[in-house]
Design brief:
The structure holds 2 protein chains of 2 kinds. Chain A is built from 20 helices and 2 strands. By secondary structure, chain A is mostly helical. Chain A has a domain of 294 residues: Up-down Bundle (Cytochrome C Oxidase, Chain A). Chain A has a two-stranded antiparallel ribbon with strand order 1-2. In chain A, helix 5 packs parallel to helix 7 and helix 8 runs antiparallel to helix 9. Chain B is 78% helix and 0% strand. Chain B contains 3 helices and no strands. In chain B, helix 1 runs antiparallel to helix 2. Chain B starts with 6 loop residues before the first helix and ends with a helix. Classes of the chains: A mainly alpha, B mainly alpha.
């Protein structure tokens, strides 16, 4: 029995036992359903082994939506706990676990896969490529991310969740103060997902630099592709830092080293320092692709070309460099001198300049445009004012002297939600509505979509504006309760109401997907939004080879040229197309990684050794495998094209 | 014969050995910590550059520009990270 004791949850409650039962039942239901409907073969052939960037993208999307609800439930529980003073809905330990997992799930397992979904689905189509540069690596990226996310998510029913905050600062996250395996989950699960992300970074840089359609120079790439390129460059430079940091944390926790301990020459604040060397660029990895989506949406629905293309690109390049120069603003109050704080204050404020350039470019794109208020456009229009507010409070926080007042209060919490929700989440939802028809061949319902956008925005204002006030009044973040006398009750109650309105908004998204799947017209064109870039020039649904003939590009709005200026996109005849074969190795290898991670977390060294060998065997198999891909014949292409054209 | 003999690589190899000898000197000769670290850092960076250019053929394809941009960008970020960390954690405490 001793052996199994380690898997017990250290701080159980009825909710956790209920979740265990729910997870168990869901797994049984999924397995039974797959068996009953005889879908195992379909699942394996079409999804688990696929290397098609579109399908991998859709799997990223499903995971992101799933994790959105996991993180959302955490958020609602936190707001409910704080809604009234001296609340006992959650105790301190549960509250700690919930704010920790909320942060990690939302950033790493919701926002990251969401942008990976857009990059996977959109970038190859936008640059006129047939797949990414390394399709199998792409599959491995996805499965590693997925297994990392799942490993993290079982923590609350097996062994206990991490509870040291999403930043996991030492010494709190060290063995002395975090005894349960929770923080091991943090180290290992994020490590596995992070390896996947790093691979994606390399993959997409190569894809964008090497596989653009003929004629598409760098300065003729659509803006989303540019933003994806820059984001991936940041990934390649920032994620190794995270990998090293997590490895050091693991060594400290499981192998007795002293990188971040308070004794034996360790330096506890070094964790915070290195964490933010990765953490701040990470913010821009999320926001730049979001900006890219807004650029596409705004120029499409303002019916104008994007204002200031070059300055858009330039500002992103500057942001990517500055993002590595600002990290110490996350710990202005650590105790370093005025010189350091001044340097990092100035670099931080400097980021507001290129960001401001982008905001003005969007506004000038709208000027004299024939604006069409579709759901994606509505999200973008709500984004501009709300995000600017978050930017302004960001400049307030950037002033290191003033930061002593804001640090670690709800003011900070309000600020970063104010940039992430209108900045990233709205972009993801705008992009979801925008690209949905390309993925599934029908539109999402516009009326429900607009209701959702408004509900989310109203809920957002009610949920987060009060935090600015209570934060300035001194309400610290991560406090699990407060007294009546503190006077925080009213603001927190308003916040809870706002969070509840947002929850309704998120449920409406699911309802919209259900409703549109049943009732929306399937009779839509390949280009239902009258858009401007290449992804809309191919068929819906997109054939596996994307483009029967590679497009010829003359400007950054190739499709618009074709529609309005008589440019011929597809010249020449069909030729046989070389495509990669599916492979089960990425999935199998990631499953082994899952077992490896789980064993590592619980220090079960024999399974760790066995699975490590398994991982190397998978890599060796790949190295010695002779797989030259396959060809799609001209006849097959003709058949597919005729079918899709509906002739 | 001249074209077949990899002169550049052989010279690179000899130069690498030389660099290693210089680095080893830090261990065998008695010098201050600062001087030793300086020698190690300088030889390490030259060695890394040699590796990239001579043995990994960084400048020999038309991707030259992209490769060097990447290397320099990486270098800048690494230096900023290291010196920024030193500043925040040690020099300005």
């Amino acid at each position: 029995m001793d052996f199994f004791d380690r898997f017990a949850v250290p701080h159980p409650s009825i909710a956790i036992y209920a979740s265990m039962a729910a997870i168990g039942l869901t797994v049984i239901a999924v397995i039974a359903g797959l068996t009953y409907f005889k879908k195992w073969g379909y699942l394996w052939r079409e999804w688990l082994t696929t290397v098609d960037h579109k399908r991998i993208g859709i799997m990223y999307l499903l995971s992101a939506l799933l994790m959105l609800f996991r993180g959302g439930v955490d958020a609602i529980m936190m707001r409910a706990q704080l809604a009234v003073p001296e609340n006992t809905l959650l105790d301190a330990q549960h509250y700690n676990e919930i704010f920790t997992t909320h942060g990690i799930v939302m950033i790493l397992f919701m926002a990251m896969p969401f942008i990976m979904f857009f990059m996977n689905f959109v970038v190859p189509l936008q640059i006129g490529a047939r797949d990414v540069a390394f399709p199998r690596l792409n599959a491995l990226s996805f499965w590693l991310f997925f297994m990392g996310a799942m490993l993290f998510n079982i923590s609350f029913v097996v062994g206990g969740s991490p509870d040291a905050g999403w930043t996991s600062y030492f010494p709190l996250a060290g063995n002395e103060f975090s005894e349960s395996v929770g923080t091991n989950y943090y180290m290992i699960a994020i490590q596995i997902a992070g390896i996947g992300t790093l691979m994606t970074g390399i993959n997409f840089i190569t894809t964008i630099l090497k596989m653009r359609a003929p004629g598409m120079t760098l300065m003729k790439m659509p803006m989303f592709t540019w933003s994806a390129l820059i984001a991936n460059v940041i990934i390649v430079f920032a994620f190794p830092v995270l990998a090293v940091l997590l490895a050091m944390g693991t060594l400290d926790r499981q192998f007795g080293t002293h990188f971040f301990t308070m004794d034996n020459g360790g330096m506890d604040m070094l964790w915070a320092n290195i964490f933010w060397v990765w953490g701040h660029p990470e913010v821009y990895i999320l926001i730049l692709p979001a900006f890219g989506i807004y650029s596409e949406v705004i120029s499409t629905f303002a019916r104008r070309n994007l204002y200031g293309y070059k300055s858009m690109v330039g500002s992103m390049v500057i942001i990517s460099l500055l993002s590595f120069l600002v990290w110490a603003h996350h710990f202005f109050t650590m105790g370093q001198g005025a010189l350091t704080n001044s340097i990092f204050s100035i670099t931080t404020m400097a980021i507001a300049v290129p960001t401001g350039v982008k905001i003005f470019n969007w506004l000038l794109t709208l000027r004299k445009g024939k604006i069409v208020f579709t759901t994606p456009m509505l999200y973008s229009m709500l984004f501009i004012p709300l995000f600017t507010l978050g930017g302004v409070t960001g400049v307030m926080l950037a002033m290191s002297a003033a930061d002593y007042q804001y640090h670690n209060t709800m003011f900070l919490v309000a600020h970063f939600h104010n940039v992430i929700i209108p900045g990233v989440v709205y972009a993801m939802l705008a992009g979801l509505h925008y690209y949905w028809p390309k993925m599934f061949g029908f539109m999402l319902n516009e009326k429900i979509g607009k209701w959702t956008a408004w509900l989310l925005s109203i809920g957002f204002i009610f949920a987060f504006m009060p935090m600015y006030v209570s934060g300035l009044d001194g309400q610290a973040r991560r406090m699990y309760t407060y007294s009546e006398a503190s006077g925080f009750s009213l603001m927190n109650m308003i916040s809870f109401v706002g969070a509840a309105i947002m929850a309704i908004g998120f449920v409406l998204i699911v309802y919209n997907i259900y409703y549109s799947t049943r009732y929306e017209s399937r009779d839509i064109s390949n280009d239902p939004w009258d858009a401007r870039t290449l992804e809309w020039s191919t068929h819906t649904p997109v054939p596996e080879y994307n483009f029967a003939i590679l497009p010829d590009v003359r400007s950054n709005e190739a499709l618009w040229d074709a529609k309005k200026n008589g440019h011929v996109l597809f010249k020449g005849d069909y030729e046989k197309i070389h495509m990669p074969n599916n492979s089960g190795i990425p999935f199998i290898m990631s499953c082994i990684f899952f077992v490896w991670g789980f064993s590592f977390i619980f220090s079960l060294w024999i399974p760790v050794i066995v699975t490590t060998i398994g991982i190397f065997v998978c890599m060796a198999l790949r190295s010695f495998e002779q797989d030259h891909g396959r060809y799609i014949t001209v006849k097959e292409i003709e058949e597919t094209e005729t079918n899709l054209r509906g002739a | 014969m001249n074209q077949l003999f990899p002169m550049k690589q052989v010279l690179g190899f000899v130069f690498s050995l030389l660099l290693t000898t210089v680095a080893l000197a830090v261990y065998f000769l008695d010098m201050s910590f600062a001087a030793g670290m300086t020698i190690l850092l300088v030889t390490a960076f030259i060695q890394a550059g040699l590796q990239l250019v001579v043995f990994m053929h960084a400048g020999e394809t038309k991707d030259k520009g992209a490769i060097y941009t990447n290397v320099f960008y990486g270098l800048i970020i690494a230096l900023v990270t290291v010196f920024g960390t030193l500043l925040a954690m040690i020099w300005d405490m």
